[in-house]
Amino acid sequence: MRHLMSPLDFTTGELEQLFALANDIEQHMDRYAHICEGKKLATCFYEPSTRTRLSFEAAMLNLGGKVLGFSDAGSSSASKGESVSDTIRVISCYADICAMRHPKEGAPMVAATRSAIPVINAGDGGHQHPTQTLTDLLTIRSLKGRLSDLTIGLCGDLKFGRTVHSLIHALTRYENIRFLFISPEELRIPSYMTEMLREKGIGYEEVIRLEDCIGSLDLLYMTRVQRERFFNEEDYVRLKDFYILDKEKLALAGPDMLILHPLPRVNEISVEVDEDPRAVYFKQAQYGVYVRMALICTLLGLTDQPLQEK
Amino acid sequence: MLNVGKIEEGFVLDHIKAGKSLSIYHHLQLDKLDCTVAIIKNARSNKMERKDILKVECDIDTLNLDILGFIDHNITVNVIKDGRIVEKRQLSLPKEIKHVIKCKNPRCITSIEQGLPHIFVLTDPKKEIYRCKYCEEKCRQRW
Do A103 and B107 touch (CB under 8 A)? Predict the structure, then answer.
């Protein structure tokens, strides 16, 4: 039995299979509409995350399966002091697969070691959020036709942004990738990330102004500057509007550059950009459902090429 | 010069960084053993100028060398039998250590989950970096 804790749990070959399946699901939704009939997904969300939870639930419902679960710790047995280990043992008796979000880092891994059913990490604190990374990779692969030979700009909060770090790690496994890190001084990419890139011989550059590099990008990954990451309101207010992608800046970009964003957006992408064909962040949310559908089928062993045991 | 007698069976842990022998004494839980232990501090050393030495008269299977490798793999372990050195054990960094150090990340699941072993995994042998198995937080101080 396999679980998904980190995007690096799957080899690039396994990811290729997963993405091919997701693309087949996209093309032929009807063929997969009953594949999970009689199966149940438990969504164990110890902290609220509407979008991720609904995406998982939509994925299982699209596959003909059923969904049960809780959406915050208050309505679960955790409020009575039950451990994650005990909860997953019980959930294993009720469902066939589990998606778990937990504020404590490593909680889904603890669940996976005790579980009788596959566990998907749906976000554990500031640690991992693998299905977001798989969503990003599937979006890039589907719309660009490749995951190699890309110049990728990552813009905004590169210091605390979990999705950004995870995506960088995942992309370093592909050929000829180059990164441009666009952020204010206070939110620069951590040195351990740039150190890792140097060790792997992957090119990167750090820039402050988006306008200076947008013309050379194949992809622009925008992120939100999150209020909860700051100790004082002043710093947050000063930095939140540092990068706003508007039509004027977008005019400097190439015709094939794609704009991705993990959402929710606040104001870092002006709404006037939404109509531009290069803005694919809502398509990205749709790919999030396809990749979760493919993941559920794969972990439940419902595909032609089952995963090898680790 | 202070003379400490030979031991018949047990270990001599040599080349311990000066001043660290007591810490090792506690990590190896030597206080719980009912045997003779000699702690020699600040002994003269050609290699290190000053060093500590621990002599433990015990059954040679009682010591957890994994812990010792994690603490300092440059320590020399001499195995003594019948008053002679019969083996010099080379320490290496263990791939995984359990229940030796605790994860200090307040956001880690180990901070709330009862009965969960604190496990650290060697993620970069070159830089000697250990990370928590669950949250991947770096172990900042080995001892």
Answer: yes
C-beta separation of A117 from A92 below 8 A = yes
Q: Is the pLDDT of residue A233 over 90?
A: no
Nearest beta carbon to residue A110 from set B107, B109, B136: B109
pLDDT in tens, B50-72: 999 999 998 877 777 778 888 88
Q: Which residues of chain B lie closer than 8 angstroms to A105, CB-CB?
A: 105, 107-109, 134-137
Q: Are B120 and B100 in contact (CB under 8 A)?
A: yes
Residue A266: CB atoms within 10 A of its CB come to: 12
- Sketch out chain A's domains with CATH numbers: 7-128+288-299 (3.40.50.1370), 131-285 (3.40.50.1370)
Is B143 within 8 Å of chain A by CB?
no
Q: Which long-range contacts (CB under 8 A, 24 or more apart) does A92-96 make?
A: A92/A116, A92/A117, A94/A40, A94/A42, A94/A68, A95/A40, A95/A41, A95/A42, A95/A68, A96/A39, A96/A40, A96/A41, A96/A65, A96/A300
Task: Give domain limits for chain B.
Answer: 10-89, 96-132
B133–A106 CB contact, under 8 Å? yes
This prediction's pTM: 0.89
* CATH number attached to the domain at B10-89: 3.30.70.140
Is the ipTM above a cut-off of 0.90? no
* Chain B residues within 8 A of A106 when measuring between CB atoms: 108-110, 132-136
A269 pairs with which residues across the strands? A245
CA gap A292, A58 in Å, rounded: 9
Determine contact, residues A221/A280, Cβ cutoff 8 Å.
Answer: no
Residue A127 with chain B: CB contacts under 8 Å: 107, 135-136
Q: How many residues does chain A have?
A: 310
Nearest CA of chain A to the CA of B110: how many Å? 8
Helix axes A130-144 and A50-62, enclosed angle (nearest 10): 70
Model pLDDT for residues A17-76, shown as the tens digit of each residue: 999 999 999 999 999 999 999 999 999 999 988 899 999 999 999 999 999 999 988 777
